[in-house]
Design brief:
The chain is of the alpha/beta class. 44% of the residues lie in helices and 17% in strands. The longest helix has 25 residues, at 170-194.
């Protein structure tokens, strides 16, 4: 699949002519304004059929990047007072003619205007079809298209900044730079093999090795920040663990800000995993409050304990809650043995009261970072947020210097490019013939190209854009 620029008509992946589409670009809920968006060759004629001036004359919307004031009409009946934005091809989001009708945000009103666009020749857009057309028309590459969905779904300031950098083409520019170096080396090999009398390969190995090492370093950097990119968009999967009655549910309620979990003085109250998404110090946490881990004869509680242990396996971060009113007991020791391979913060809870266990003692026993908190009094929470940021993002996040990839698809393609380039490195060390090197170079070139959307299948493109909302 190759994208093409400045096309007045585009073909669908199956070769069919693509018609003009319409959709609500805002949520179908009562609001101040609503936006109905049209895109395609007939976007202007369709909009002109329902738009008039205040005096009832046809509304002129033919000038690009201008906003016009007017009214929507259904036959001779005025429906709503609107503002209309026009973006003519190719300088629009989709690369086609685009019209956006900004109306009042009543649910029935938005539905009525949307229905009028369908009545006069538009087709209801499929999920993500506007962005899909932008990709097919060469306005954006596939990495930018995926970043649009991430930007919409971002739950934190950090996620917004990371996704916005990708929308603006940060990843695409890096991939294009690497592919340019690969193409330079491949083209030189082909030229030298075709005309060995005039083009010498002397010194080529050193130059190719420099390019290969540089690209491998860039790929390694992208892969290294893959997990950070995932956590910026999905949130840090965080399990709250500890023995019964240590204050795990109280901590969850304090972080969430509502009584999400039942809290009593009876050990074993929490029998199942309770989950909630929160924001803490600008980061998104997907919290899981688990059953207290202990040996129990209670069948139902035992199931909860097993779920808690599985939560430990799948978590990015563990918050190990320890009761400051008791000594560090055997049950705490057993829990400590389960967390050795995970990023863990120990929370010494109930420090608003006279304690038996101190922070220093707990640090010596666990060898882990310890924060004294009171889930009841909301103390230590700010320090917890700072410690999480330090554990996962080296204390600060820099979006000007790092690119955080979010997509598993992109990771797979980067891994494939890396394997091909490692073969190139190996071939250079063994002084293999240059035509063997060109095979692996082109393998890396193709793998990196798939990140931008080159040579990808119809099913993959449809799967990516099906995850978008209807009006995007």
């Amino acid at each position: 699949l190759q994208s093409g620029k400045n096309m007045s008509k585009i073909k669908g992946l199956g070769g069919e002519t693509v018609d003009t589409i319409s959709a609500l670009a805002t949520a179908l809920v009562e609001s101040g304004i609503g936006i109905i968006r049209l895109s395609g060759e007939e976007a202007l004629p369709i909009a002109e059929k329902i738009l008039r001036t205040k005096g009832g004359k046809p509304l002129n919307i033919r000038e690009s990047h201008r906003i016009r004031y007017g009214f929507v009409y259904d036959e001779d009946e005025a429906v709503d007072e609107v503002l209309v934005s026009t973006f003519l091809a190719p300088k629009s989001y989709t690369g086609e003619d685009v019209v956006e009708i900004n109306c009042h945000g009543g649910v029935l009103l938005m539905q009525k205007i949307f229905t009028l666009t369908l009545k006069h020749g538009a087709r209801a857009a499929e999920p993500g079809e506007f962005t899909k057309r932008a990709f097919l028309n060469g306005r954006i590459d596939l990495s930018q298209a995926e970043a649009v969905a991430d930007l919409i779904a971002s739950k934190t300031e950090a996620g917004i900044q990371s996704s916005l950098a990708l929308v603006q083409g940060a990843l695409g520019e890096k991939i294009k730079e690497c592919r340019s170096l690969i193409l330079e080396d491949t083209a030189f090999i082909e030229a030298a093999l075709d005309d060995p009398e005039h083009i010498s390969l002397d010194g080529f190995s050193e130059k190719c090795n420099q390019h290969t090492e540089y690209i491998l370093q860039e790929i390694e950097k992208l892969l290294r920040f893959r997990e950070e990119g995932r956590m910026l968009t999905e949130g840090i999967h965080t399990a709250i663990i500890g023995k019964p009655n240590a204050g795990k549910s109280s901590l969850l309620n304090a972080l969430v800000g509502v009584e999400k979990a039942i809290v009593t003085d009876i050990p074993g109250t929490t029998r199942d995993t309770v989950e909630e998404n929160i924001r803490l110090d600008g980061l998104s946490l997907h919290l899981m409050d688990t059953a207290g881990i202990r040996n129990t004869q209670d069948i139902v509680e035992g199931i909860g304990v097993e779920k808690a242990k599985k939560s430990i396996e799948h978590a990015d971060l563990l918050l190990f809650v320890v009761d400051a009113l008791k000594e560090f007991e055997k049950e705490d020791e057993e829990i400590l043995s389960l967390v050795q391979e995970k990023k863990t913060i120990v929370l010494l809870n109930k420090t608003d009261r006279e304690t038996v266990l101190t922070k220093k003692e707990l640090e010596e026993k666990t060898g882990l970072p310890v924060i004294a908190i009171s889930a009841k009094e909301w103390t230590g929470i700010k320090e917890l947020g700072e410690k999480i940021r330090e554990l996962f993002f080296s204390g600060s996040l820099s979006f000007s210097s790092e690119i955080f990839i979010h997509s598993e698809r992109q990771r797979v393609d980067l891994e494939e490019a890396k394997r091909a380039l490692l073969e190139v490195r190996n071939g250079l060390s063994l002084s293999l013939s240059e035509d063997f090197l060109s095979i692996d170079l082109m393998g890396a070139y193709s793998a990196l190209g798939r990140i931008l959307g080159e040579e990808v299948s119809e099913d993959l493109v449809n799967e990516i854009f099906a995850k978008f909302c209807m009006g995007k």
